[in-house]
Design goal:
The protein is an alpha+beta fold and 303 residues long. The chain folds into two domains: 165 residues, Beta-lactamase (3-Layer(aba) Sandwich); 127 residues, DD-peptidase/beta-lactamase superfamily (Beta-lactamase, 3-Layer(aba) Sandwich), CATH 3.40.710.10. The protein has 13 helices and eight strands. The strands form two sheets. The protein has a five-stranded antiparallel sheet with strand order 2-1-8-7-6, with helices on both faces. A three-stranded antiparallel sheet has the order 3-5-4. A hairpin with a 4-residue loop joins β1 and β2. The radius of gyration is 18 Å and the shape is globular. The chain starts with a helix and ends in a 5-residue tail after the last helix. It binds glutamic acid.
């Protein structure tokens, strides 16, 4: 498989889409990200890395980080995670309040904002003062101690994230947060501000292609947990576009409003792509096309 040639072809073919769509400027620092960026990495389970474009430039991974917090919560709490959060596609916006009211404070899945807040609340209940279990997990999964938060992004979301505040307090009113909502929100804004490149993300997600073995050779999740995280990514990982993704790309994937998307081909590779301009549904326009081209050109998908 000539992944390098395939990536070069993809970069050429998606070029007309790069810069089209809208930036997630509701998070003020993201408004300054240059619209023309495009980077992509394919990392095989043998740790061979192929890349094109801005693959080494760090960006705000936003909701992609919810995959790490979910894996961690499953490690810490096992199947009881699913008593407080569902695993069905939401069919509503990732930051919707309406569904939460109707469903009595049990978020539809761990990747919408309400679900991620509940998952982080679980993690925080295991976290001692001075510890950061999420950051530790991300660094271990990626075998990269330099990964960290962009605190200017976290601060900006803290100042403007009124809807997330509403969600957290709403969850508390239903009894589905154990910790103080402000503590959970602080952890949430930090989680979303993780700053990583495509190359770093592809390494960090390697455990999802290898039944739990990290880029550094450490078992960071069980095969059972990996199967479950990948299946939730397939059904809920790309906002209200999961059906279209399964149809066009055919891989479990998680996106973020920073324009990143990571897709997993279990037993073969992880692909990470970044281009900041988004579709109406909030997924990277060029990134989605790039992943569709990858599975078309390689004839590799889970189907
Ligand atoms: N921090 C963003 C928010 O809460 C995350 C959105 C996303 O990437 O889906 O609105």
């Amino acid at each position: 498989m000539d992944y390098q040639r395939t990536l070069r072809e993809i970069a050429d073919e998606v070029r007309p889409l790069v810069g089209r769509g809208r930036i997630a400027d509701y998070i003020p620092p993201l408004a300054d990200v240059p619209r023309g960026r495009f980077g992509m990495v394919v990392r095989t389970i043998g740790s061979e890395v192929f890349s094109v474009g801005d693959a080494e430039e760090r960006f705000s991974i936003q909701s992609i980080a919810k995959v790490f917090s979910l894996t961690l919560a499953m490690r810490l709490e096992g199947d009881t995670v699913w008593e407080r959060v569902g695993r069905e596609p939401s069919g509503t916006a990732f930051n919707s309040l309406v569904q939460l009211e109707v469903e009595h404070g049990i978020p539809r899945n761990p990747f919408i904002n309400a679900g991620a807040l509940v998952v982080l609340d679980m993690v925080l209940s295991h976290q001692a003062q001075g510890q950061d279990l999420v950051l530790d997990f991300v660094r271990r999964a990626s075998a990269n101690p330099s990964v960290g938060y962009d605190t200017s992004v976290a601060e900006a979301e803290r100042a403007t994230g009124h809807r997330n505040r509403a969600l957290a307090h709403f969850l508390k009113s239903f009894g589905n947060l154990r910790n103080d909502p402000d503590r959970v929100l602080d952890a949430y804004f930090l989680l979303c501000s993780l700053s990583m490149s495509c190359a770093e993300l592809a390494a960090a997600f390697q455990y999802l292609a290898t039944s739990g073995l990290s880029a550094g050779g450490e078992q960071v999740a069980t095969a059972r947990q990996v199967k479950r995280v990948n299946s939730v990514m397939l059904t809920c990982g790309v906002y209200d576009e999961a059906g279209d993704y399964a149809y066009r790309v055919g891989l479990p994937a998680k996106s973020g409003v920073g324009g990143g998307v990571v897709a997993v081909m279990p037993g073969r590779f992880v692909a990470a792509v970044w281009s900041p301009c988004l579709s109406e549904k909030g997924n990277s326009l060029a990134g989605t096309m790039a992943l569709e081209l990858l599975t078309t050109k390689t004839a590799l998908s889970i189907f």
